[in-house]
Amino acid sequence: xxxxxxxxxxxxRDLLEMLLSIFRRxxxxxxxxxxxxxxxxxxxxxxxxxxxxxxxxxxxxxxxxVCRVVRETSDTPVIFLSCLDRPDDKVKALMLGGDAYLVKxxxxxxxxxxxxxxxxxxxxxxxxxxDFTIDWERRVVRLHERCAVLSKKEMALLRLFCExxxxxxxx
Length: 171
Hints:
- This protein is of the alpha/beta class.
- Helix content is about 40%, strand content about 25%.
- The protein has a five-stranded parallel β-sheet with strand order 2-1-3-4-5, with helices on both faces.
- The mean pLDDT is about 85.
């Protein structure tokens, strides 16, 4: 299970549902959706996702414009999905700040790999306070000058507690 927040944007509701299903099966639990450019920007501003998976061709405001607006103030990774297959389309997306460009129909394994790579490159600490840090990959917790290496089970429990801080958890 991963606690990275992903915003999925596409005006095709069936495709959006398919993406939700794929990412849920891959263990992503914090999934947001939008079906238009303006809706995507609202969701991005309100939720600050860790990654945006973005369709290019949408009515009103296309994915290129959404990416341009996001790039004005953020380095949130953006993966473009599009049926446009010309080199100029890909170059435009990447020059606007996109991190990847996949052509529909795309291989689902490639999409998952691109998402994993983008999240890994942009990893921000999940929980961080001035004197407290968690390194999820190395399973290291630091508090002030003290450091502890946790077992896999301890790390899984810590992640569970961090994901549901106000929830009563049973055995």
